[in-house]
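hey
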């Protein structure tokens, strides 16, 4: 009886939280600890039926997996915790542009240079950008996440209403990739949001973009630098990385451009011809070239940059101007061999 009540409370946790406040939040957290598995819940059963109907999974096998899936309050806390402050570039760069991260990246590239050269030759993606993404995501594999992905995605799919639809889709993708790769779904590890491996691929990205680069019939983005490096390269190539193309150019003259042109989305959409009337001129590029005029708040004040297609490709990996700038600047420091 107690377990049944606990399950009901868990399924309605967010409604209680909004309607009744902290006392019931504590109660629901306690109940979640009582019912650590997802076996027998109506919403989970509906999901099992969906996977059976659409993907041919055996219901009893899925029930056994969900019987092992564990609710993690720490995941809910992490994903719903409000940001303490809105980061600007001046503070964001301190997180990722560190001497330690550059030093570790240089060592990683030297240890796996042949793999980077092969990936660069096959996909045309700058090796230093690939390296920088691995550095920003996991410090070159040092912080790949310790949550079981089944726990993370079950928690978010069934107990985090704000994004439950998204995480249910990712949970389905997790079962599909485990079947395709012939791996126990309960064995896969990742972040609290279900991102996996060196490059932190969510399950749908894994299935669409991850590649086997060492020919062992398993796409191992967790332990194989071969597969991890190649998968990031393929991801960027699919998102239209331009070989030897620019990523960002700093252009002080953009200070004279009206604010309405700056930070308007992520995709390049303003031609150099338009910007030319405000004194912006890049003689090396055709006036028809489309760019993204950007303003960042740096340590010495406003910085003005033009983002190109390759900048946009990086934002397909993570939809953040700050992220893309961190990747770019870290890649330049790694290329130079010093912070």
């Amino acid at each position: 009886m107690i377990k049944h009540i606990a399950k009901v409370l868990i399924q309605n946790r967010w409604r209680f939280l909004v309607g009744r406040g902290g006392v019931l939040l504590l109660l629901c957290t306690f109940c979640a600890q009582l019912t650590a598995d997802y076996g027998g819940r109506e919403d989970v059963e509906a999901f099992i039926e969906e996977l059976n109907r659409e993907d041919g999974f055996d219901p009893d096998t899925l029930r056994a997996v969900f019987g092992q899936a564990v609710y993690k309050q720490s995941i809910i806390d992490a994903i719903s915790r409000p940001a303490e402050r809105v980061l600007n570039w001046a503070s964001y760069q301190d997180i990722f542009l560190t001497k330690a991260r550059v030093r570790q990246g240089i060592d990683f590239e030297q240890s796996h240079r042949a793999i980077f050269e092969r990936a660069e030759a096959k996909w045309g993606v700058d090796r230093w950008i690939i390296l920088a993404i691995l550095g920003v995501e996991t410090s070159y594999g040092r912080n790949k996440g310790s949550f079981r992905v089944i726990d993370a995605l079950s928690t978010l799919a069934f107990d985090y209403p704000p994004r439950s639809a998204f995480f249910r889709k990712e949970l389905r993708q997790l079962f599909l990739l485990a079947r395709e790769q012939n791996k126990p779904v309960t064995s896969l590890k990742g972040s609290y949001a279900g991102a996996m491996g060196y490059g932190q691929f969510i399950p749908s990205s894994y299935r669409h973009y991850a590649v086997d680069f060492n020919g062992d019939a398993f796409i191992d983005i967790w332990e194989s630098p071969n597969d991890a490096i190649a998968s990031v390269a393929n991801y960027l190539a699919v998102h239209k990385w331009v070989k030897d193309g620019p990523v960002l150019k700093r252009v002080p003259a953009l200070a004279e451009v009206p604010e309405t042109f700056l930070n308007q989305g992520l995709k390049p959409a303003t031609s150099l011809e338009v910007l030319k009337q405000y004194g912006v001129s890049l003689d090396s590029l055709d006036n028809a070239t489309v760019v993204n005029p950007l303003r960042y708040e740096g340590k010495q004040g406003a910085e003005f940059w033009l983002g190109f297609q390759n900048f946009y490709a990086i934002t397909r990996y993570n939809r953040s101007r700050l992220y893309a700038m961190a990747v770019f600047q870290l890649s330049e420091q790694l290329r130079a061999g010093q912070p």
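The two ends are 61 Å apart (CA to CA). Confidence is low (pLDDT under 50) at residues 1-36.
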